[in-house]
Design a protein that fits this description.
This protein is mostly helical and about 475 residues long. It has two domains: about 15-105, Fumarase/aspartase (N-terminal domain) (Fumarase C, Chain B, domain 1); about 110-355, Fumarase/aspartase (Central domain) (Fumarase C, Chain A, domain 2), CATH 1.20.200.10. It has helices spanning about 15-20, 25, 30-45, 50-70, 85-95, 95-100, 110-145, 165-190, 210-215, 225-230, 230-260, 285-310, 320-345, 350-360, 365-375, 380-395, 405-410, 420-425, 425-430, 440-455, and strands at about 150-155, 155-165, 190, 220, 265, 350, 465. The mean pLDDT is about 95.
């Protein structure tokens, strides 16, 4: 039976019925649909629209239906048009005319809107917890590597020395912003549309604030048209997820590079790597590659949602059925990626000697050489030019700034003395950058501890980090 039968007297074409159906994907909202129905029935009774015993019977049976569905005793009928039709049909089959009274003062338009908000609020919490776990892993690993020197890059060229801990905390900052976005999205999502009806509310004396309170919302939507047609919360959550996936993808790209023999800064645990079907020596970072690849999928989900909504007049349109598959896929993909990504990062082996060896090449202490001359009174632009000449000299003779003789330094500028070698040592270069946000060991440790405190997770007493 279709909830809309009455006006139409001809059965829907079977193939069109399949096309119209949403049960295959909205069945995951069965709990939310029943929670919303229980709240609605309770409110109707409090307003005198339903008799108390009718509401009690409805609520009791709805709870039985949910328990049976979740236990597997009651399979969801895949021929039902949607999860709302299934639940109402099952309720009516058990309670007869009493079950039919549940839909009083309610439309599927406001029903699906409340179901989706309830479901996605829970998903916001789940995603928040996972991202928070990732931030904690990054901070603890950063503490273990607050003095592990590595080259920092611009344009994928060695630029200046940093530490591995500092690099990891850059991602911790990104994921903290993701947490903030999720929290903001949930706040704006936390509005109950139930009671908006199809688009114009109802003549029944509803207590919409009671319904909102029973369902744990902070309040009720203020405009019935907006209540049923708003999907900003889907767009916003999809955007949050897409940005988080971009952060994961950037991190994955670096992990893939770091695993290569050309870098060999880290080695992934065997549990998070795969081999080759033909090349026995291979150890592939497939998890990171999949995360990088799935980012495009999630960006596509966001694009689909934006495109679906951009031309819709108020209020509800069937186009909006397309919201669920896209937002569900985005949520599922990020959760799946984080489930694999977090332990992969937590168990990866860091190879500090290879990082330091890379940092020792590439003249990444050239800026510090120029700063040394500035400290002697030279204008920065003059110091910059002199240092550039010194780099060219080193390259011509196969030397580094550390191995360049003092007499050669003095040939380019008499201000150089023995202090230059201390000034351009990697440890000095890193730890001298004590400015807020810099890579000095004390900065990294302070930043990591501060974030861990905010996350409610103090530093681990003993790091589980693997160091090669």
């Amino acid at each position: 039976m279709k909830l809309w039968e009455g006006r139409l007297h001809k059965a829907l074409d079977p193939k069109t019925d399949d096309f119209n159906s949403s049960i295959s994907f909205d069945q995951r909202m069965v709990r939310e649909d029943i929670e919303g129905s229980i709240a609605h029935a309770t409110m109707l009774a409090s307003c005198g629209v339903l008799e108390a015993q009718e509401a009690e019977a409805i609520c009791t049976e709805l709870k039985h239906i949910l328990a049976q569905v979740e236990s597997g005793e009651l399979p969801i009928d895949q021929t039902a048009e949607d999860i709302h039709t299934f639940v109402e049909g099952e309720l009516t089959a058990r309670l007869g005319s009493t079950g039919k009274r549940l839909h009083t003062a309610r439309s599927r338009n406001d029903q699906v809107a409340v179901d989706l908000r309830l479901y996605l609020k829970k998903q916001c919490d789940a995603l928040y917890d996972q991202l928070k776990e990732l931030v904690v892993v990054l901070c603890r690993k950063a503490l273990a590597h607050s003095d592990t020197v590595m080259p920092g890059y611009t344009h994928m060229q060695r630029a200046q020395p940093v530490t591995f801990g500092h690099h990891l905390l850059a991602y911790a900052e990104m994921f903290q912003r993701d947490l903030s976005r999720l929290a903001d999205t949930k706040k704006r999502m936390d509005v109950c549309p139930l009671g908006s009806g199809a688009l114009a509310g109802t003549t029944y004396p509803l207590d919409r604030e009671l319904t909102a309170s029973l369902l744990g919302f902070s309040g009720a939507s203020q405009n019935s048209l907006d209540g049923v047609s708003d999907r900003d919360f889907c767009l916003e959550l999809a955007s949050d997820i897409a940005i988080a996936m971009v952060h994961l993808s950037r991190f994955s790209e670096e992990i893939i590079l770091w695993c290569s023999w050309e870098f060999k800064f880290i080695e992934l645990d065997d549990a998070f790597s795969t081999g080759s079907s033909i090349m026995p020596q291979k150890k592939n970072p497939d998890i990171a590659e999949l995360v990088r690849g799935k980012t495009g999928r999630v960006v596509g989900d966001l694009t689909a949602l934006l495109t679906m909504m951009k031309g819709l007049p108020l209020a509800y349109n069937k186009d909006m059925q397309e919201d669920k598959e896209a937002i569900f896929d985005a949520v599922d993909t990020l959760r799946m990626c984080l489930t694999a990504f977090i332990p992969m990062v937590d168990t990866m082996k860091v190879l500090p000697q290879n990082m330091r060896k890379a940092a020792a090449g590439g003249f990444i202490n050239a800026t510090d050489c120029a700063d040394y001359l500035v400290g002697k009174g030279l204008p920065f632009r003059d110091a910059y030019r002199i240092t550039g000449d010194l780099v060219a000299e080193c390259m011509e003779h196969g030397l580094t700034l550390e191995t360049l003789p003092l007499e050669t330094y003095r040939k380019y500028d008499p201000h150089f003395d023995e202090g230059i070698y201390e000034a351009i040592s990697l440890d000095t270069c890193v730890n001298g950058r004590k400015v807020l946000g810099g890579p000095a060991k004390q900065n990294v440790e302070a930043q990591a501890k501060k974030i861990l405190q905010v996350m409610g997770a103090g530093p681990a007493e003993k790091s589980s980090d693997k160091i090669g």
